[in-house]
Amino acid sequence: MWRDYNWDSEDENKVELVVKDCNWNVLSNWDTVMATKDLKVKGGADIKRWDKFKNIRLTDNTEEIESGKMVLRTEFFKKI
């Protein structure tokens, strides 16, 4: 007895997270973002307005991105 296998059925179960910056632009891995305001960082140098962060990585949380060892909130950054 043969069974028909639908190869697309696995793709339908996947959920794709959409990460957006402060201006609702869609972010993806390896994008460059810029700070929109001064931010204080615990245990490190402060982030100044217009500081750039290159090659960001997305996380499981849609409100956070990673740049190096820092986890950044998307509400304070815009895509360049």
Automatic annotation (TrEMBL):
This is Alkylphosphonate uptake protein. InterPro entries: YjdM_C. SUPFAM superfamilies: Prokaryotic SH3-related domain. Signal peptide: none annotated. Keywords: Hydrolase. Residues 19-79 form the Protein YjdM C-terminal domain. Its EC number is 3.11.1.2. GO terms for molecular function: phosphonoacetate hydrolase activity. Gene3D superfamilies: SH3 Domains (2.30.30.40). Transmembrane segments: none annotated.
